[in-house]
Amino acid sequence: xxxxxxxxxxxxxxxxxxxxxxxxxxxxxxxxxxxxxxxxxxxxxxxxxxxxxxxxxxxxxxxxxxxxxxxxxxxxxxxxxxxxxxxxxxxxxxxxxxxxxxxxxxxxxxxxxxxxxxxxxxxxxxxxxxxxxxxxxxxxxxxxxxxxxxxxxxxxxxxxxxxxxxxxxxxxxxxxxxxxxxxxxxxxxxxxxxxxxxxxxxxxxxxxxxxxxxxxxxxxxxxxxxxxxxxxxxxxxxxxxxxxxxxxxxxxxxxxxxxxxxxxxxxxxxxxxxxxxxxxxxxxxxxxxxxxxxxxxxxxxxxxx
Length: 305
What we know:
single chain; alpha/beta; Rossmann fold; N-(1-d-carboxylethyl)-l-norvaline Dehydrogenase, domain 2; 6-stranded parallel β-sheet; 3-stranded mixed β-sheet; 14 helices; 9 strands
């Protein structure tokens, strides 16, 4: 198939590579030409605009930071919908709110094409391996049409049809709210236990073998506990996603007390200048409060030298 892919950041570049490796005719676009060079070298074609990436494509993917970017790339001047082919499918892989998904769907239908919201989960590691979870909202017939290509990005058992347009985004916001809020609680648990005298490795081993285990804890094991703040998933994006979840809660008239607290913690991490760090950097706030760095014992790194 002829496929366009727009947005070659930490996630998009891996997903686009899997589409290319699947044997498809891939055209790519990003604000940074350098981001596209590895894909060009592997056989992809560079486009000079979103419209050029979409022209003649049967499927167009977008993987972008925030909802406003998605709408701008789709509906703005030189955007995808100015050139999309009748009957083509626009698949947005970004984390957006359901209202934006509905708006995108309406604009895409007006252009004679189809839209799916298909946010992903699994981080850069999952994107690199090609075993992401994809949560898809939209027309089921269109979902089935593009499923073989989606399976290049994610594991078949993790490709989930969620319902009508916007339901993929709702599921993604619920998932990220849970995982990101858990990371805030992990920082408080480590601060408490380490202040009371337990070292980070012992605590990590206990929790990972007990009911407190989670993907968020394993993220801590590769990030803050090793002093590694390279993203991954940035604090800025974490603040955005939790904010979208609390926004959805407000629109439904639901109290979201714990979510609001988690959002404020990520906003504080942004205020400290950690927005481009891995999202586990939010734990540094609790490090300061406890007066202890959340790190595995130095003897571990010494023994591995």
